[in-house]
Structures are given as C-alpha cells and as structure tokens.
Specification:
0% strand
Length: 94
Amino acid sequence: MGMEIKNRVDNLERVALEFEGAQFAVRHVLANLLSRLDRHDAEECLRELQSTGRRHGIELGESRLTGYLDELEALKVASANVRKVGAPPLRAVS
C-alpha cells in the first residue's frame, strides 16, 4: 500500500510539473503576441481581462480568481520584457 501511494504522489508531481511547463509556454506565446501590439492596446486588453475575471469571481472562486489575476500580471510583466528586447510588430498574413 505504501508503494502505491508513493507512485501516486510521484505521478501527481510529474503531472503538476508538466502542467506548469505548459502554462509557461502559453504565457510566453501570449507575452510575445501582446508585445507586438500597440502598448495601449495590449494594456487595454489586459485590463478588460482583469475586469472580466473580477465580474466572474464568484463563479471562479477565490483561489481561481487569485490565480487568474496573478497570471495576467505575470503576462503583463513578461510582455513588457519581450517588448524591451524588441519584438517585431504583428503583420497580416495572407
């Protein structure tokens, strides 16, 4: 029984780390895209998402809302960092 619990804990840890890695990838993609927008448009987009999260906070629950807003803040910082190194502007692809 003890080994089964250890295996389950090990599997949960592996899955949590994989999820965290996926979350970092999504954050980097979105930060890159936001950094290519006009700064005002990017900031407005993030403000609208924060507002939407707060409006649905009761449905999300306190912990999810905290995570949601924290992730938006991390995305804002990440996009500012990408902008500093000079991401090229978005262009239409046909």
